[in-house]
Design a protein that fits this description.
This protein has 6 helices and 8 strands; from the N terminus they run βαβαααββαβαβββ. It is α/β, with parallel strands linked by helices and about 210 residues long. Helix 1 packs parallel to helix 4. The termini are far apart.
Length: about 210
Amino acid sequence: MRLTTTTNVSLDGVMQGLGGSDEDRRGGFERGGWALPLVDTEAGDHINEIYGGAAAFLFGRRTYEIFAGSWGAIPEMSTSPIGAALNSRPKYVVSTSLTDPQWAGTTVLTGDVAAAVRDLKARQDGDLLVPGSGVLVRWLLANDLVDQLDLLTYPVVVGQGTRLFPDAGPDIALELVSSQTTSGGITIQTYRPAGRPQYAVSPADPNP
């Protein structure tokens, strides 16, 4: 399987609480629901295509619980293209605390998660899609498990909230595979990890 992450972020990198005002209030976050008013037809079609093309889904626990309580439980959401894909295909969630998931088709991954993800990638075809799940995405990148990143950047500065990438972390070079801008100004970019970045060396550096 090809492990693909799909993430919606603001221009300042915020990915917290994009779907609703009460979706995720961690850290006193008060600007939830910032993405939905900006979703245009092209972005919606792209998201439907990404979810519809997935063979299976991989979540961090917090994102899993948000999705289970919405796409997995609310009738008008569960029957939408995204909900239909999520409810009909295998779901895997990385967690040390979730023991009895109620969303049908869910398997909890514990123990050696890296080995479990590598096994999933090796024994199945298609895309293993990771929606949201910022902590998990960063861990997957650090462990060289990501094959492709799908990034939707919205034309808004949220100004607070959890960001996809923190102030410090591993450095990663990316290869741009495709890029488009929707009529509403959302940029949709697909990247592949390409090792570590190259850095400029000062001509005066005695040890280049």
